[in-house]
Amino acid sequence: MAFGINKAILKQWKQHAEQGEIAFLTHFWLDDRFPGCTTVTKVASSDLDKLIKWGKQYGLKPEWIHKREGYPHFDLLGERQKDILKKEGKLEQLLNLGNPSTNE
Questions:
Q1: What are the CA-CA distances from residue 13 to residues 10, 26, 35, 40 (Å)?
Q2: How many structural domains are present in the chain?
Q3: Cβ atoms of residues 50 and 29 within 8 Å
Q4: Mean pLDDT along residues 41-58
Q5: This protein's superkingdom (predicted)?
Q6: What is the pTM of this model?
């Protein structure tokens, strides 16, 4: 179950991904398969080659890309999520989840 983002943030993520950019979307998320994980970052791009190349620098395998939602993306969880967000200068996405003004 996903929650903690607003429609404008989701729309922006989709637009960036559709334009072939590497787009980041972090939201609260609960899944019994991943105990202890309460957030996920979806890193997407419509340019699959670009997404694969981006993922390789972080040890992400192409077969981990989710293609079922129309927006090819990697799911980042746990420490890998934090590490990659920090390296990409996107850690504020994770830190801002507790800020109600960003979660309408």
A1: 5, 10, 26, 14
A2: 1
A3: no
A4: 97
A5: Bacteria
A6: 0.86
